[in-house]
Structure formats: structure tokens, C-alpha cells
Design brief:
Number of domains: 2
Helix content: 10-25%
CATH class of the largest domain: Alpha Beta
Shape: globular
Radius of gyration: 23 Å
Low-confidence stretches: 3-18, 26-30, 32-54
Distance between the termini: 52 Å
Mean pLDDT: 75
Structural class: alpha+beta
Number of strands: 8
CATH topology of the largest domain: Nuclear Transport Factor 2, Chain: A
CATH architecture of the largest domain: Roll
Order of helices and strands: EEHEHEEEEE
CATH superfamily of the largest domain: Microbial ribonucleases
């Protein structure tokens, strides 16, 4: 069962024995490639334990801070999150309610907060990392705030 050539007016389509046109398959393949590219560029893709998250379209438009630009203590906290390590402060890993509504809207329990220690302070200070997604070790996105939730920057790898 080979290919049949069907013509209809000014348009011509090659058709396989299963009825799928060649150009139809080409268009579907092109759409698939575009979707895959969109996922790589803007979607959440878990790439490895060392690089646990890639920002997706839900966080597009947020100011960005690169992991390397975080204070040393922030990089350490991020590594501890990814490794599932324990934390010094009892509130670390607790649910962040997003009451300020500055982060993308999600269901309760999606976001968790972690203290970024500030050298010289005897209290938690204002710096936090807030991560969203399940499970906790492989967050979909993490945000850094140095002003106690007044503003957030998306942490990019």
C-alpha cells in the first residue's frame, strides 16, 4: 500500500495508506518542535540534582537574580533545599502564604520559605528564599527577597 495522490481544486496533498497527509505530518512535527522549544525556553524542566529548576511561563516577567549573584548564605540555603538538608530555624520549610500576592497565584502549601542568614544578626533578619512546587527538594521556582517579602526576584541558574 503506497502513497496515493489526491487532488482537490488547486490544492494537492500526498496521502499515506492510513489517510495521513504528508504536509499534515510536517505541520504536526513543526508544532511539536515549537512546543518543545517553548518548554526549553520557558517551561519547567528538571535537568539534574545540581540544577533543580528552570523558570517557566508562570514566572515570566519577574526581575531575575542569578544563583551566582546571591549572597554566599543564599547559595548555601539553595543547596540545602536541593539536597533536602535540615535548617537552623524552625520556620524554615514552613508554608509561605503569599499574603502579599506578589508571587504567581498558587494553592495553599505550594510555596515554602527559608531564612537566608545575615552575618552579625542574632535574629532571622529580612532575607528569605521562597520556593514553589512539589516535592520540596525539586522546586519549580525559587525567589529571593532581601526586604522581608516587599519584593521578589526569580533565582535563575
Amino acid at each position: 500500500m503506497g502513497k496515493n495522490r489526491m487532488t482537490s481544486g488547486a490544492s494537492e496533498t500526498a496521502v499515506n495508506s492510513n489517510g495521513t497527509g504528508t504536509w499534515q505530518r510536517v505541520r504536526l512535527a513543526a508544532r511539536g518542535a515549537l512546543c518543545a522549544a517553548a518548554l526549553v525556553v520557558t517551561g519547567w524542566v528538571a535537568v539534574s540534582d545540581a540544577q533543580a529548576f528552570v523558570p517557566g511561563p508562570a514566572v515570566a516577567g519577574f526581575p531575575v537574580i542569578k544563583r551566582a549573584e546571591l549572597p554566599e548564605q543564599g547559595r548555601d540555603v539553595l543547596t540545602r533545599i536541593e539536597n533536602g538538608d535540615s535548617f537552623e530555624h524552625p520556620k524554615d520549610g514552613s508554608v509561605f502564604g503569599n499574603r502579599e500576592r506578589l508571587l504567581p497565584k498558587q494553592t495553599r502549601g505550594y510555596y515554602r520559605e527559608y531564612t537566608v542568614p545575615t552575618p552579625g544578626l542574632k535574629h532571622r533578619g529580612a532575607k528569605r528564599i521562597v520556593c514553589g512546587g512539589q516535592p520540596k527538594r525539586r522546586p519549580e521556582a525559587c525567589f529571593y527577597t532581601e526586604d522581608h517579602y516587599a519584593s521578589f526576584r526569580l533565582i535563575a541558574q
